[in-house]
Amino acid sequence: MHPWIHQTLGELVAADERRARLFDQLGLDYCCGGSRTLEEACRARGLDPATVAAVLEALGTTEAVSEPVIDWRTQPLSNLIDHIVATHHAYLRRELPRLSALLKRVVAVHGDRNPWLREGQEVFERLKSALEAHMHCEEEMIFSRIRALEQGSTEAGLELEPLLQQAEQEHDAAGEALHRLKELSNNYQPPEGACHSFRALLAGLRALASDMHRHVHRENNILFPRARRLLAEAAA
Questions:
Q1: To pair with 50 at 20 to 30 A between CA atoms, which of 31, 41, 132, 200?
Q2: DSSP H helical segments within the chain, as ranges?
Q3: Based on the domain organization, do 163 and 52 belong to the same domain?
Q4: pTM of the complete model
């Protein structure tokens, strides 16, 4: 029995983020569902855990590395926070308005023939507003406290745990919204005769979901647990 089948999805991706792509392809949720073991997640999807573990192991020697693999479990938390803001938050601030405008155009032209677009627009706009507020809270309240906590501040941990719990709940809500968009769009499949804008919208929604998986994984499975360990050490 492969030892990896008893590790959680979050632990496996934290050790090597190249594994995230395979989990995405297999429909294994390693961000909000990152606390499940590989065996549990595979059984739920009707997959053989040993086979998936073997494929994961092969990735380390067969998959090309386009950029250095950073082990965020050992990097300073301030570095991880900088990466999240510069990579994922910057992406959302750029893509959410673009997708919102694109969705508006597509609904105006194709909404009558594709009724799901109108519900999709409502789901997306709620998601957009929620993520914008979420990022502001993280940057102004959560990340600043974690940075100070890492520097040894004894007061930085005040009210941090409730904020982390709130952020995790918001991650779950965002995951549900993204899942609904995937359902409505039939897994982002363009209908027959879809124009360039329609195809660009679906590609953008797929990319948004993929980036959010990495984003939430880095917070739920690495940043927040490490911050909680600092809180425990400070309390001790």
A1: 31
A2: 9-15, 19-26, 38-45, 49-62, 77-83, 90-110, 116-137, 143-150, 160-184, 196-217, 224-235
A3: no
A4: 0.84
- The tokens of 123 are what? 């789901």
Helical H runs in 111-159? Answer: 116-137, 143-150
Domain that holds residue 24: 3-62
Task: Check whether residue 100 and residue 164 sit in a common domain.
Answer: yes
What are the tens digits of pLDDT across the range 145-186? 999 999 988 787 788 999 999 999 999 999 999 999 999 999
Residue 148 in any domain: the answer is yes
Domain count of the fold of the chain = 2
Q: Do 113 and 199 belong together in one domain?
A: yes
* pLDDT single digits (tens) 94-151: 999 999 999 999 999 999 999 999 999 999 999 999 999 999 999 999 999 999 999 9
- Rounded Cα distance between 25 and 91, Å, is 22
- Considering the domain architecture, whether residues 136 and 192 belong to the same structural domain is answered as yes
Q: Beta partners for 20?
A: none
- The reply to whether 157 and 193 lie within a common domain is yes
